[in-house]
Design goal:
This protein is an alpha/beta fold and 630 residues long. It folds into four domains: 5-99 and 189-236 and 373-418, P-loop containing nucleotide triphosphate hydrolases (Rossmann fold, 3-Layer(aba) Sandwich); 106-180, no CATH class; 240-369, Fumarase C, Chain B, domain 1 (Orthogonal Bundle); 424-629, Rossmann fold. Helix 12 (245-261) packs antiparallel against helix 16 and helix 20 runs parallel beside helix 27 (618-629). The longest helix has 21 residues, at 325-345. The radius of gyration is 26 Å and the shape is globular. Bound molecules: iron/sulfur cluster. Iron/sulfur cluster binds at residues 106, 111-113, 162, 167-168, 172, 174-175, 178, 180-181.
Length: 630
């Protein structure tokens, strides 16, 4: 008998609140597992398929534990859903008040110190935006960017906010009325604190650097990581190092301004050296996005320029430290940048991957990240907390949860899997054509033609996912004349707008790339066909994938089996998860790659998916969907 039967079982108070409410055995089992972990301590890794109701399965035990529980999510969408939909339900279910707050990074709030300089610093072209923002600032009580009635340009927002590096901290004269500090205050004492993975891991990195004292988040010893499939990647990025050209230019300007405010001379010579050597280093970086810098490539860079930059940064820190609180914060930032340069350019190549990246505006940056975050997370997180729960709809692959546990450093965790509560074999089909072999070798005309056939068989209602925007556009061009239903393409409008249009027009089709593989929730008749244009293998020369593959092979494994396959299995499962969002949904997942049924590894990938009948003709797709309608 579940200990949460009164809250989530047959006689739950939700019965009178949620139309169609019925107790779900899977949800009760998961809640029991989570409640036991929170009470007795330890780590639980749980996969709960769509439809289990995992949010309430952790919110109810978390609230009833009487502890402060931090819940970390990958996406803003889930955070919003927890706050506005699931927490009110948890309150109804438990009859408890359940205090909750969202904590965001400092740069999400207006900084009162920066605001005073905004008129001097914001470029003239943004004057209109700035005056709209001033009107809002008169009214706002929270100073949160998300509350603005318009989306501000990054160039404007950057001048009104600060990250932890530039905040004056305890010595700030505006601290008593600071919006970011007030938001943190509101979270203190709450039972539930909601954050995103990036902030949680940034806080962890700061806590580690400062010997464990709380920095951003209130003290807590229970963590629930929802959307845990994304935690590894965010951890690698947060626990790594980064030095960027545009950030260094901003940093130099901030020093000039801060010295002027303190009526001191700026370290002009060192700032000039920083710029000259920075230009030398950054201009020597390769063209293109995410280019790996292995040992050989790193040696070709002008490392003397990096040495000169580090020396200049340290001299700047020495010179400005005593001028004012603001320059003291900037001195700390200079020291951190010098350390980051060292970490990036003298890495332990077995443990660290280094790459360069360029943004759309030509800004260039150097990055380094650990190739395995598991040991770091185990030492600094799982071993330190009383209880940790990692949960997601997509964690297990053909080998169950062992792969994700190894990657996240939770090998000793208890594990739990709740399969889909839907009758998947009845509600869905997997279409795999025999005549299309993927891997980038398939004839684009044949692939586009088959996508057209499938979309017509479904009467629209299709989400078509591509591995790249190039392939999306190529297929769209080929089908432009043929398809008679509205076709929406990623990039035409904001993601939320596209999804809304797709949801509203039941016959429409949405072409999208990897970024739509997660977080799309379209129950009902608007979505009856999900097409994956190919098996979602990662680009093999992506720096992180290449470095992890090398590491797997050094450890006696295989890059393909240990890195590529689990990666593809989870993405495949996420793509599949777009289809069945409720027990009345019906549909077909089409994977246009015969390797899913012809190759040995196809079995591993299929075993990552719920078991369902495989079909290989468009006629079967048509008749299955027609049956679903009747
Ligand atoms: S404490 Fe001061 S410097 Fe830091 S964000 Fe608040 S107002 Fe800005």
């Amino acid at each position: 008998m579940s200990r949460y039967k009164n809250e989530l079982g047959r006689s739950s108070p939700l019965k009178g609140v949620l139309p169609g409410f019925r107790a779900r055995d899977g949800q009760l089992r998961l809640a029991d597992q989570i409640g036991g972990t929170i009470d007795h301590g330890g780590v639980l890794v749980a996969e709960a398929a769509t439809g289990i109701g995992k949010s309430l399965a952790y919110l109810v035990p978390a609230a009833m534990s009487g502890r402060c529980v931090v819940i970390s999510t990958a996406t803003k969408a889930l955070q919003g859903q927890l706050l506005t939909e699931d927490l009110p339900l948890a309150r109804q279910a438990t009859g408890m008040e359940i205090t909750a707050a969202v904590v965001k990074g400092r740069s999400n709030y207006v900084c009162r110190v920066q605001r005073a300089f905004a008129h001097q610093r914001v470029p003239e072209e943004y004057a209109g935006q700035l005056s709209r923002m001033e009107e809002w600032l008169v009214r706002t009580r929270v100073g949160d960017r998300d509350e603005l009635p318009f989306v501000p340009s990054d160039d404007v927002w950057r001048e009104l906010s600060v990250g932890p590096d530039r905040c004056r901290g305890a010595r700030c004269a505006e601290r008593d009325s600071c919006y970011a500090e007030a938001a943190r205050e509101r979270a203190t004492g709450c039972q539930i604190v909601l954050v995103n993975h990036a902030l949680y891991l940034a806080d962890l990195a700061l806590r580690v650097a400062r010997g464990g004292e709380p920095v951003i988040l209130p003290e807590h010893d229970v963590l629930i990581v929802d959307e845990a499939h994304a935690f590894e990647q965010v951890a690698a990025e947060s626990l790594g190092a980064r030095v960027s050209g545009p950030a260094l230019a901003r940093f130099a300007r901030d020093i000039d301004d801060a010295c002027a405010s303190a009526t001191k001379l700026a370290p002009t010579a060192e700032l000039a050296l920083l710029q000259v050597h920075g230009d030398r280093l950054f201009s020597a970086l390769p063209e293109g996005r995410r280019v790996r810098l292995d040992e050989t490539r790193l040696k070709l860079l002008p490392l003397d320029a990096a040495d000169a930059m580090r020396a200049a940064l340290r001299t700047i820190a020495e010179q400005i430290r005593e001028y004012s609180d603001e320059t003291e914060a900037l001195a700390r930032q200079a020291e951190r940048q010098a350390l980051a340069l060292e970490a990036i350019l003298s890495p332990d190549h077995e443990e660290t991957v280094v790459w360069s990246d360029r943004d759309q505006r030509g800004g260039v940056e150097l990055r380094a990240a650990p190739t395995a975050v598991g040991p770091l997370l185990r030492e600094h997180l799982w071993d330190k907390l009383h209880a940790s729960v990692l949960v997601s709809a997509t964690l297990a692959d053909g080998d169950g949860l062992s792969g994700i546990c190894r990657r996240l450093g939770t090998e000793a965790a208890a594990t739990h899997i709740e399969d889909s509560p839907f009758d998947v074999a009845e509600q869905a089909r997997l279409y795999v054509p025999k005549d299309i072999i993927g891997g980038g070798k398939a004839d684009p005309d044949l692939v586009a033609d088959r996508i057209g056939d499938l979309i017509e068989a479904a009467g629209g209602r299709a989400l078509v996912l591509f591995p790249s925007l190039y392939r999306l556009q190529r297929t769209h061009e080929l089908l432009r004349e043929r398809l008679t239903m509205p076709v929406l393409c990623q990039g035409e409008a904001a993601r939320g707008v596209l999804l809304e249009r797709f949801r509203e027009d039941e016959t429409s089709v949405l072409f999208a790339s990897m970024t739509f593989w997660q977080g799309v929730d379209i129950p009902g008749r608007s979505l009856e066909l999900v097409v994956l244009e190919s098996l979602p293998f990662a680009v093999p020369n992506d720096p992180m994938i290449a470095a992890k593959s090398e590491r797997a092979e050094r450890d006696g494994g295989s890059g393909f089996r240990d890195v590529q396959l689990p990666h593809a299995a989870l993405l495949l499962k996420q793509g599949f998860g777009r289809l069945l969002r409720s027990e009345t949904d019906r549909g077909v997942v089409a994977v246009l790659d015969a390797r899913l049924v012809t190759r040995g590894y196809g079995t591993f990938l299929r075993e990552s998916l719920p078991s369902l009948p495989v079909i290989d003709s468009v006629d079967e797709v048509r008749s299955f969907l027609a049956r679903a309608v009747s």
